[in-house]
Amino acid sequence: MPPLQLLLLRLASLVLVLPFLTSAATVAGSIKPNVILPSLAILPPSTTVTLSGDLLEDSRTSHIFANGAFRFQDVNPGSYLLEVNCRTHIFPSMRVDVSPDGLVEIYQTFRGNEWTNKGERKPHPIDFYPTKASEFYIAREGFNPMKLLSNPMILIAIVAIGGMTLMPKMVENMDPETRAEFEKQQQSSMLANPQGNPLQSFDMAGYLAGSSSKKSGTPSGSKRK
Amino acid sequence: MWARHNPLHYLLLAGSLLSSSCRAVFKDEAFQTDFHVPLFGTGLDPSSTFFHQATTGKAGSLLYTLSNRLIIGAINPKDGSQVWRQQLGQGSVSETEELSKLAWLRKSKDGRIVSVFDKAIALWDAASGRAIWEYTANLQVADVITLENENLLIVAFIGGEVKAIGLGTGDVVWETLIGEGRDTASNLNLFDGKLYLTLDTPAIKELKTVIISPVTGAQLEELYAGVFHASDSHVPTPQLLPVTAFKDAEHLKLNFLGTRNTKSISVDNNVHDYRLHAISTDLVFIEYWSKSAETPTSWADIYSVKGGVLKKIVDLPYENDFSVFSLSDSGSGIFVTRANRAEIRVYDTESKTPIKTYELPKLLPANPLHVVTEVVKRRDGAIAVRAALTLADGNLILIRNDQVVWTRQESLASAVAAEFVDVHEVEDTLEKVLHAEESSNIVTAYVKRLTRHIEELKYLPGWIAGFQQSILAILGQPNKAADSAKDPFGYRKFVVMVTRFGWVTAIDTADQGQIVWSIPLLKNQIMEKDIKGIFHFGKGVVVVMLSSGDIYKIDAINGKGLKKTALQTLPSASVMTVESKKGDSRWLVIVPGKEGAKGWFWPDEKESELELALQNTTISRKCEGSKGICGYTAKPTVGGRLILSPAWSFRLPAGQTIVSLTTRPVHDPIASIGKVMGNRSVMYKYINPHLVLLITASPKTNTLYIYLLDSISGAVLNTSIQTEADTSRPVVATMSENWYIYSFYSKSIAKGAHIVVTDFYTSQARNDPGNLLNENISSYNQPRSATPYGISQAFVFPHPITSLATTTTRQGITTRSVLLFVPRIGSLLSINKRILEPRRPVGRDPTNDEKEEGLFKYEPFLGIDHQGGSLSHARELIGVSSIITTPSLLESTSIVVGWGLDIFGTRTSPSAAFDVLGSGFNKLALIGSVVAVGFGTMFLRPMVRKKQIGQRWSQ
């Protein structure tokens, strides 16, 4: 059949049907991939789009087609909430106003606000981009040695223990004069605080201050003398 | 990490400073502690279940089905696993007898299938289950047909409109209207490249056939064929055939399309029913069966319909048995399969003796409802058959030759009632034995204890073996099977369900929802209205009561029917259980629907005990015609009858109908009677075990009325109103402790689903316990001023909710979580009651006192937080209509099962698992570190001693 004839026939059938058509509108759009959703194949096949009207009869649900599109034909005039129902990704919801002459206006809507609080106007075949991917699980915090080591208390303890074991060696390596002086100083502090074990009398702040600069440690000792 | 198990936490708990973090599912527990039985439901119609190639050109086919729960999908015939599934109609439709006329599934070309439900048509990719397109019309669909060559899907609507939709695009290519919209379209056939639409024209009582050009939709010819009587009705006819079928009382009539040529086959339509099958254009296969279940019969005839002549070729013999037939074309010829409980027979289309009979090793559990088959004739002439049978118990089985390959428990998708049964309650507990010992004198108690200990010695080897195992479990992976057998924490419960097909089935929550037992009730069809309920009678016994008055007592542990009785009750009666105050006896109390009639109790024994149990109490139910709630006092008399005297009634104003009726759960302990504020003052909870939450709707004014009643005195404790509510959408509610929560769909400026929570306190004043601390409080002597003080708050939720429930724990110390099923995303969510707290400060940040109490700023929008509250995590649930909960032995943990279509079970700890070590607890690391510290001490001790001695000496 030549295409022109086909077209004429189609037009004829359209003319036949026209009286039965109402001025109802079509609401269409599609889900588009972005950084959060690299491919539409990731979306579960059960993902749907719902156009909720004031009445249950006006509310419709459609599955997402393979290319991400959706379409609602013969939508009656009214104000609708358009939502993407997806478990794995979160999408913004839209307000759809269908006027009696079939004009479709789409606005972003903010849930938890008045319905009159319209957001930015969006183009009509609307593109939906996911805003967030759902995270389902809580990772259990297992035993992690690195995390344990990064704890400041543990770090302090390690430094202290290291100091305790290294100190005698450092003392041994000192030249005899400073060593004698150091031992003398130690003994005087031991005499000042005779009872108790050496760990209790360990002056952490002083030690840390002293060890940070060895040179300044010695003069301070000599000053006390 | 170990700090989480610090005993300090128990102290914090006692101080009700429970952490408000609502924790959902740990990654290592997901898929381990929960189970999901994905179901399709029972095959609706034999023409909507078929084997079909998922991808063209690829060998191997999948089994496609459309179920009575409107689920379509593909099943792998090799192992019965689900390939994909989709729900039609968004679960908004309940099951009716007419469903098979509204919904069907058809093959299409290029590995696609077409589904139709009511006004919606969808084309699906057969391999992945993704929609290729969907089309929703304003009219109900009468028939669809795929035109392979034109790449079109032709849809006929009931009123006679015909639309052609492009298979690839989903766009309407042409549309036309046949008649003036007064005719009822019934059937589309494609024959000789022409499209035949059969319509029933009521005005002239004629069968009208219109021939349509498939390319343009132009009406080519219109025929009035034969007289179509008022009593005649259409019979679904396979689209391949050049005939359309209709019937009157005594005949099945076949009209050759486009002619006035109508042939009749005489058959008594009152006694027999039939179904037409076709797999080629020239053979029609008619399967007959008896309508009555008492006299099962079946037979089949094969007719040739070539060239306008109807000729019987073969008749397969009449048998007094349920058997079902299927046609299949293997490429090497057409085969007929006849299946019954005992055998599968394969016929060719030429003789009435089977060419192959496969006897099944065991009778099938139930009669087959329908069957689809694939028959293959090998080169050596051997016949192999693969048959998918839908059984009368609702399940789907696949038989390969003479072996049952797999069974899918699809009947569970049609459960109408479910109840938990504790597996351990039958075991005589140690507690009881100890009490018995206590009550006797010292000498006998000692002897008893000694003999008990000696007796217990026999468990010692087992215990040592178990101990050894648990030591080994520390090193390796824990033995899950052994754990669930021991069940130290009481996770193991049975869920006993009654299905629409008249079977009672129990599943094990600790064993991934596996079936434990299944027994028939010997009733063929049970609809939701036919079952009064399933009642737990303690000691592992459940009682199922049907509307007909039949009572079945079943041992829920091993699935043995204990007793069957029938009472002469009316279907409108209400049933409840009453527990004895002394022993552990229980009774069913049946209150008839008619006012003034006597009630029943069952079992008919221990009247005096029942009389005591019914003293000073009121039993309440919906009044006659659901016009309100009525309360009665009851007194048992001889013969199992109850004398009922009306105590109170709560009548609804005109125009209101009951949409929801909720009571507090049976097990709902309240651990703390008050709420401590930040400033150390106390708000006392309004505690009343007899609360009833009644929600009624007035569709005319779009209003919901919420009443809180006392079921003993009938007093109205609190009322509230929701205007601008959508009363056509479901309203769900749950109640626990001193609060209730309900959800509805609002049409107000805050459009969408709302969750409203109301907490009740004894009074608005702080530190006022009301009469809470009195010893004897009665519902009757509460003054009017004692009505509770309610605080309410509403939240907007993104999606409608179809079921609500509350977690229950053993002592009620753990915070409760509200469980909700959100069908649009297929998730079972949990929201901690601390989030649904009406006292959260609105429009300002909380003060320090409020912060101390755990309150945070109110946000009207409750987003969906999967990480914080999705119990079903990545799983996709369909159609959970009811959520039931039961406590485990651990205070922290509640066992949750959702049912309705899919079965989903899990355990949840709303305040985190504070009384059990998580699976992340590394026993090996603990032992290792203790050993390391020990070694370290041993190593350091001589060093320190030496140093200390050295220091002392040097002084």
TrEMBL record, chain A:
Main location: membrane
Comp. bias (Low complexity): 210-225
Topological relation to the membrane, as annotated: Single-pass membrane protein
Region spans: Disordered: 179-225
Family matches, as PANTHER family: ER MEMBRANE PROTEIN COMPLEX SUBUNIT 7
Transmembrane domains' residue ranges: none
Domain named ER membrane protein complex subunit 7 beta-sandwich: residues: 42-156
Single GO cellular component term: EMC complex
Database matches in Pfam families: EMC7_beta-sandw
Cellular compartments annotated: Membrane
Source organism per UniProt: Dactylellina haptotyla (strain CBS 200.50)
Position of the signal peptide: 1-24
Protein name from the UniProt record: ER membrane protein complex subunit 7 beta-sandwich domain-containing protein
InterPro entries for the chain: Beta_sandwich_EMC7 (IPR019008), EMC7 (IPR039163)
Polar residues bias locations: 185-200
Keyword list, A-Z: Membrane, Signal, Transmembrane, Transmembrane helix
UniProtKB/TrEMBL annotation, chain B:
Residue intervals of the EMC1 first beta-propeller domain: 24-410
Keywords: Endoplasmic reticulum, Glycoprotein, Membrane, Signal, Transmembrane, Transmembrane helix
Subcellular location: Endoplasmic reticulum membrane
Family listed: Belongs to the EMC1 family.
This protein's name: ER membrane protein complex subunit 1
Membrane-traversing stretches: 924-944
GO CC terms, sorted: EMC complex
Domain ER membrane protein complex subunit 1 C-terminal: 736-953
This protein's record includes keyword Secreted: no
GO biological process, one term: protein folding in endoplasmic reticulum
Signal peptide: 1-24
Quaternary structure note: Component of the ER membrane protein complex (EMC).
